[in-house]
Each structure stands twice: as C-alpha cells, then as structure tokens.
Structure of Glycosyltransferase involved in cell wall biosynthesis:
Amino acid sequence: MMKIGFDAKRAFLNYTGLGNYSRSVITSLHHYFPEQEYFLYTPKTVQNARTAGLQAGANLHIRQPAIPILKSLWRSRLVVPRLQQDGLDLYHGLSHELPLGLQKTGIRSVVTIHDLIFLRYPQYYKLADRKIYEAKFRHACNNADRIVAISEQTRNDICNYFGTPAGKIKVVYQSCDPAFTQTATAVQLQQVKAKYQLPETYLLSVGTIEARKNLLLVIRALALLQKPLKLVVIGKGTAYLDQVKTEIARLQLTDRVLFLEQVPFADLPALYQLAHIFLYPSEFEGFGIPILEALYSGAPVIAATGSCLEEAGGPDSVYVHPQDEQGLATAIDNITNNSEQRGQMITAGKKYAALFTERRQAEQLMAIYRELTGKV
C-alpha cells in the first residue's frame, strides 16, 4: 500500500483545463486503485457537483493550512513538513509545480507539465509572469524523480527548453470528463436547443476567447463559406474579444455568431452533440481536451497544425494551418457537402477517442508510482 499526495488546489478551485485534469487524475486513481491512500493538499476546499468525487472515501484525506493567511506560502513551501508527517511515499504536483524542499525529504516526486506555451509564445504573457512560470517549471523539472508530459509535443518542449533528459519524461495522455461519453436523450437535446435558442445547424468553438485560441481565423473563414452556417462560441472573454467583435461587424456576420458565457457544465455534452462541426484552430496547445470532448460527442473536428492537436484528434480529423482562413473554410465546406465523409469522421473519431480513457491514464500513472517507490 502506498501513501500518495497531490497538489489539489486546482482540483477544488479551477473548473477548466488544469482543474479538470487534477480531478480526473485523483478520482480515477481512487476508483481503480482503492487500496492506496490518497492525500489532497489544498489551501481551500469547495463543495459542489464538480468536486463531489474528491470528498468521498475512507482513503481520501484532505489537508489544509492551519493558518489561512499563509495559504500561498503553505502550498509552495510550508506544506513539506505536513507531507512528512503524513508519511507520504510519493507526491504528485499536478500542475507544473513541486514545493520547495521536497527533494530533501526522501519522498519520491512526480510533476505533470502540461505545456511550455509561455516560452513558445512569450508575447501572450506579462514579463513578470513568464519569469515566475519559468522558475517554477524549471525547478520542478530539475527536482522531480519523474516528469509526466501530457503529449509528445510537451515532452519534446521540456527536452528542448530545459535540457531535461528524455528518459526522465513519460507521456501519459489525459482523458476528458466521462459526461462526454454519455449520449443525451432527444428530450435533453431539445431542452438545450431551446434554452440557448440554437440554430438548426451550427459550427462550435469552445475555449477561452484569447489570441492563442485563434477565434479570429474562424470568423474570417465563416465569411468565406459556401453556405451561411452559424457559429456558436462558448468561452470566457478576454480583451481579445473586442478584436473578434470588431471583425464580426466588419464582415457583417453579427446575425451568424452566437456567444454563450457561463454555460453550466451539465449542458456542454448536449451542445457538442448538437454541433455540425467542432472547430479548434488554436495556434498552440499542450494537448487539447475540447477535441476529445468533441470526438466523444460525435462532432467532426477541424483543428490546426503546428502543435499537438494531431495527437488529440487522431488521423481522421482534419487539420489546417492556423493562419489559413481559406483552408479552414474549404475544410468546413468539404465536410458540409459530403455527408459520407462526415459520417466516417464521426465513427472514426469515437473509436480514436476511446483510446483516451481515465482507466488507461490511472494505470499508467500507477505504474510510474510503483516504479519509483518499489511498492504495490
């Protein structure tokens, strides 16, 4: 039996990418390997439907700082004595970080690195943030006993930017929330369609509306389509949204773009399942979980070349250059005009997505833990 600790801050407090990953790792390991003891270290807990799986189980132990004012310092440094007190065999930093001093305790360590986008695209980050990220990421990679990369692209970036030996890094693909594997009923689909006043046929974009996600390319491609398809955009806006709306107005597409914010998670699977095509032409990603969500949901995927999106989407999705709006428009037209191709993409996409399961993720991570600790 092992005592395994996790940096669980984002599992409790983040409801997008890093939080989804953290919850998936913890809950899948707890489900498939209930014989182990799991310790969740977090500066704060929140109880809701998304975190319910973190609260249950005799072998799940939540640890918080005794003095709330020291939450940030506790997570990065002061937590170490508590890890020792709990008798951990291994600690897994789920989002790029390991606490300072952990390497001196004898506790084995794993860190997950999701991407190094701040080094590839520094223009999207403030200088101070880049310096902080680089210090944290480099410290974690230098001191971890094993690094988990969520894609081959991220593995290569860690080697190239930090000079980390390739043998220290293991690629473990993540999954998406099991909710996307469940087919919504006709009633549920109709309710969601009515709730958001969705068009009969629509293209779908999901993700934070920021420059790297490249929504401007989608808008420009929309103006080039053979048929006046509509676009549904789900995501939190940033300053980049102003540029997007300016372009929509310039191209006279206001009646063809629907923005949805603060969509409840429970509605997302149906929104994917109702979509004609899912578009994800991001300039760069660590993996691209929305692509998996779309494939599981039966939505054909068009994504961008240049990073890891081919890993997420598989050989039967379509990929275009992230600056080629005509190429994106042509890809949309081809799928729209060829129902046989669309059907083949849906079937092949679901088959490919089935390779990325929480069970497989849990088994691969547990194999790493056992290798490092010598325990079963």
